[in-house]
Amino acid sequence: MRDSVGSAARALIRRVELATPPDRDRATDALRAFAILGVVLGHWLVTALIADSGTLHVASPLQSMPQLAPISWLFQTLAVFFLVGGQVAATSHASARARGTAYRHWLHARLARLFRPLAAVLAVWTVATVAMLASGVGFATVHALVQLVLSPLWFLLVFAALTAATPLVAKLHPLWPLAVVLLVDVLRFGCGAPGWLGWLNLPAGWLVPYCLGATWSRGGLRGRAAGWTLLVTGAAATAGLILFAGYPASMVGVPGAAISNLNPPTLAAATFGLAQCGAALLLRDPLNRALRRPAAWAAVAVLNLSAMTVFLWHQTSMMAVTATALYAAGPLPGLHTAPDSPAWVLARLLWLPVFAGALLVCRAAFRTYEQHRPRRRATDAPRGPHTPGAAGAPVPREPRPPAPVIHERCPDRPEVTPRA
Known about the structure:
two-stranded antiparallel sheet; mainly alpha
């Protein structure tokens, strides 16, 4: 059994390597994977479902242990995702225009992979919500669970809107949306403007890294000087805002806090994103060197196959483990108890592999919604064992395991997609 698994893994690694164009910027895929994993681990570490008199409600260790705020600096990685998204979308749109592809066809190709898996998770949770309410589960518990599923989805809506606006914002200088964030925060916190004004920062705040990514796609941000400038200035500005301007140290929302850096984004979140983008640019060359190792690159490629599936189902995985354990064994440390001590943190770390196992089950069940490809027409010629793949790289014929085809970043399918 072990030998067969090892042989299958080696075959997959070999086929991924053969399917990858030599000039592919592998670091871009690694940064996307890092951003998704950061969000997943961050949610698993700072979100707790507390069992209290038969009801589950949400709590955060950052409420009782604010000294853990640096954890949010490591795992709030959305700026990196928007940086990569802007780079990929701007490159893809420029290539589509050069080929004469209509904007609507380009946009459909870009968004389809986001909304197919989203439709699946919404359908499953609609059925689950109705079933829980019909079986007598308390409304407070159902509300807490559904909120955990839906709350991260704002990210997809913002990302989809920025993707649709790529032709308009691709050449926008990042300082313009940063100036909007600054103005809104001055009005909110310095001039007593109404709180709803802060929601203007939702698109503006994430436009900053998105526009940086578009600049990157045009050949800007070359050299390590750009990365160091963003990292140093962004980190210094963030530290100043936290120490002297009263911004929260946590880069994620904390239940009960008067101000959240994330909902909506504040100037501190935007400057912190600049620092993250600078670090990402500095890591490009080391990552590209490290990912020349076929096994490391295959791991990144496989994760990118299901990036949206992993993002959409990671909260469900955590809740499934929490509910199953509560039913089978009652309240357990690090899972159902109050997150108010270092002991809870240590116990929580032990649960992470269990969450990951449940997520792998969800990935296996729902990844086809993300990896869907159009059916081959009857008039299409079948590919031979050495026919070039979509990226122009030969893909050898082997019976197992299914081989991914790595598409180049210029076409409308910039991600790693599975071979039919």
